[in-house]
User: Fold this.
Amino acid sequence: MMQETLPQLNPTPGAGHSDANAAAEPLVRIEGLTIGFPDETGERFVPVVEDAGFVVHRNEILGLVGESGSGKTQTSMAILGLTRRPGKVMAGHVIVDGVDVVGLDEAGLRRVRGRKAAMIFQSPRTSLNPLMTVGDQVARVYVRQRGMNRRAARAEALAMLRRVGIAGAERVAGSYPHQLSGGMAQRVMIGMMVACGPDLLIADEPTTGLDVTIQAQIFELIQQVQAEARMSVLLITHDLGVVAETCHRVAVMQGGRVVEIAPVEELFARPRHPYTVRLLGAMLRPDRPSGDTQEPDPLPERLDIEVGGRRYEAVSVDAWAAAGVGLPMTIEVAPGHFVLCHEREDGADAAETER
Amino acid sequence: MTDYPAANAPLLDVTNLQHTFQTGAGRVFAVNGVSFRIDAGEAVGLVGESGSGKSTVAKCLVRLLEPSGGSMRFRGADITHMNERSFRPLRSQIQMVFQDPTMSLNPRLTVRQTLSEPLRLHKTATNGNLEARLHDLMGLVNLDRRLLGRQPHQLSGGQKQRVGIARAIATNPAFVVLDEPTASLDMSIRIQIISLLRRLQDELGMTYLFISHDLSTVRHLCNRVIVMYLGQVVEEGPVEEIFTNPKHPYTQALLSAVPIPDPARRGQRRRIVLPGETPHLTAPIVGCPLADRCPYVMPACRQGTIPFFDIEPGGHRAACLLYAEDRDAVAIDGSAESARVSRSEASGRTGSD
Ligand SMILES: Nc1ncnc2c1ncn2[C@@H]1O[C@H](COP(=O)(O)OP(=O)(O)OP(=O)(O)O)[C@@H](O)[C@H]1O
Ligand SMILES: Nc1ncnc2c1ncn2[C@@H]1O[C@H](COP(=O)(O)OP(=O)(O)OP(=O)(O)O)[C@@H](O)[C@H]1O
Ligand SMILES: [Mg+2]
Ligand SMILES: [Mg+2]
Assistant:
């Protein structure tokens, strides 16, 4: 794997907000991460995430966006060592607060999960225990993670349910997950994870299924706990409005690859990878009238990029095979703005002299 | 096609629908007197507060839940309490995409089995062309046909969601209830799904009830929107009317909360925050469901049933006393109530007067 190009994926810290803390080692550093599943024959592993890399700084909200099926959930599960069999991490490192999660044993993983990193899943109801009331489930977090006694934990659990905007918290605490609307189940889940007090909160589409009023409340809540606890948040979402309003930096995935990373303003103003251009172009503006929801015009699959006199091109991942491109590399096109590129043949000469 | 009991009836006519859940902790009044109608070929958006009863309405429509009151007519035929046998011929005509794809797909079936089932059951495909139709369906929802052999746990969230959509449209139903069908899809696939739904609407006359929190998608797909709050409809109207001229204070708050995808405008959006929390529906609501949180609340808002007032011709109506013609009388004297209750009965259905 192209390890030599990977360090470039770790941008100068503090993008999005200058902060003394930002100079420190990032909380999470993912390098060359490749996750595979066996194909139908069971003989070969097919990567669903390939050579992915990015960092999550302390005290920042990093957005992770991209194609459905591009590997966002798999990547974030790998941070918690949750890759499920028959899938496996085939290569790379996931360093969380100095500890490489890849290859870590269960005891080690337990030390990471909860206090260091906690995850809110895409589908809340399936990750809540159907046989336990939601109040008990939240209280259990306080008992396990914070060592509280049962009574204190109960009181904290109720307070947390109120904090995430649940009406009639006492009554809801006594309900089972299936009795909750989709929105309420998700709020319970968020309360449970925030209760862990993690350094990194991974939120995988945390407001899918919530109305925008509650969505706004939840993001305010996440932003608030993030700022108070100086926590890091990895936020996976398809909602570019949410990204624009909450994230400091954004990583974009397509076809198992991280294709672009940039501070949020920079990404929206100057997307450089064809997939990002397509994604941002496909935006339905809630503040604009309908009528022109045509399928977007086919956009270019290759875009030229020039940095320091060397020429590269960024190629849509689904066109790699047809384009017959070689190994990709990550190029910094502007401070903190990284794009997955290929060297152009006519740019190769310039590259030669650098060796 | 089957003969229609009443040829000019709306495709779907829902009147005063109610549903109450019995739980260990008491009853939950999830849907309280919801009325609307949908004409063939329409795409109607159903939006509103989380927990306001949208999915419950949907499940009543496809007969997964038995309404506790009111009636539902499909092509003029009363389906409210129809037994399974009489309803069976309609099953292929009324389909649903479920909110939570993980819960609604059978975990043991492969995508191929999940999609073949409705095709066989409703004899939409013969053994000869089954495989072709499966490939066709996968293509329509933009899924790689190699996923046909996979089980749900081997798929990403958005892939499962598209299997749910493919299953619902497999039999070319007349009416599809889509409950949050695009929530887990990225923007470019979301647009492809909208285009697909539009195409099926144009070519086959498919009709949709589209439930979503994604108001941009609603704005771009639907011709009409119904807004629910706490088990009731509070406003409805043509889509552009609702988005540019929302009248009910709940609709106004809802629309003001939509995030705008433009970091340059971060922090500039003026969100209308309703004070307080959503009360829980452990008792039927008297008066306006928003009364406790509404900045414009008047004494009369806490009494009787709030009728619909026409805002614009063309079906834009809001159940809010701010729009009573006789507003001064309402604000000053709550006893104007009796007159309005009778009006509420008259305007209980769309298009009355
Ligand atoms: N058990 C499995 N066997 C084979 N492939 C799998 C399995 N689980 C997941 N995959 C594949 O891995 C890829 C990445 O999935 P992942 O859930 O990470 O996508 P995602 O980016 O989160 O998508 P979405 O936005 O739709 O949630 C998908 O193409 C999926 O089909
Ligand atoms: N099986 C059930 N038992 C008891 N209460 C239920 C059940 N299903 C739903 N409810 C309650 O009924 C009300 C309406 O729920 P419903 O799922 O219809 O809301 P919704 O509008 O679809 O919400 P969301 O946008 O969150 O999906 C909620 O208060 C919910 O808690
Ligand atoms: Mg996912
Ligand atoms: Mg619902």
User: Anything to note?
Assistant: The longest strand of chain B covers residues 26-38. Chain B touches chain A through 70 residues (CB under 8 Å). Chain B has two domains: 12-222, 247-348.
